[in-house]
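Entry 14: structure prediction run for Isoaspartyl peptidase. Input pasted below.
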Amino acid sequence: MPQPFAIAIHGGAGTILKHQMSEELKLFILEDLKKSVLAGHSILKMGGNSLNAVVEAVKVLEDSSNFNAGKGSVLTNKATVEMDASVMCGKAMTAGAVAGVRHIKNPVMLAKDVMQNSDHVLLIGEGAEEFAFENNYKYTEEEYFHTERRHKQLQYLKEKGLFTFSECEYPDDNKYGTVGAVALDQNGNLAAATSTGGVANKKYGRVGDSALIGSGTVAENGNVAVSATGMGEIFIRKMVAGDVAARMRYLGEDVHTASKTIIQGDLKTIGGEGGLIAIDAFGDICFAMNSSGMYRASIDVKGDLNVKVYADD
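Run finished. Output tokens:
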């Protein structure tokens, strides 16, 4: 009997305003989300593993300028990019992550190589890039990542003295722009991947939850895979992804109850906005958010495709 397989992806959660979202921009975003989830699902459909599926799905979003990861990353206070990413494979609970990389086109790929080709879990900054170049990664000039939108956003935030998102001229400037994917493959293996450019106008080598296993990313066979998106500092404090997994493991909660308890309850109590995607060992998919929207898409165990933007979709 065929084993179930499924995948879900996200492109960030937060305040996504309908009245500022043009139909043209919405169509571009929906197309990117669809392309991402289909890229991952095609691997699962052919019997491929969940790790490769989530990495390929995230790469699509990193290559798009519509999301805060890879090409569309927000800019630091010094007008540079500092990108973070992590992956986790549920079979042996192996993981890899990078933080503060500036010249790597697809940080999620580097996180995967840290997991598979090093003795470590997390590499940062120059060291992460040294490892990358030793493993035949091409040096990518920072200009590749810069977009007019992000330059305008940085200028606005500097003028206002802000370090995080605030409404400008785009419908999702107050959105936490992490991207991520979770998947279950035909062998019952769970995996998760998360990637981000961080928060705009950040200083001092700030790192959020996306690079931290147990906060932004987790995968555990027989239980759940999670990728989170939101206010990184608070997601770290609440250990969001790991907390979902723990509630399911120790309390026996289903993926929907565990996810919504964290996102709608405990996280909100300490001022955290955002959301997460999760998939359990049977392929049941959950999207949980306490914000007005989350860019998201999924292909469930029945093969049904869903692509959505707003919380009430």
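Notes: The longest strand covers residues 6-15. Will compare against the previous run tomorrow.
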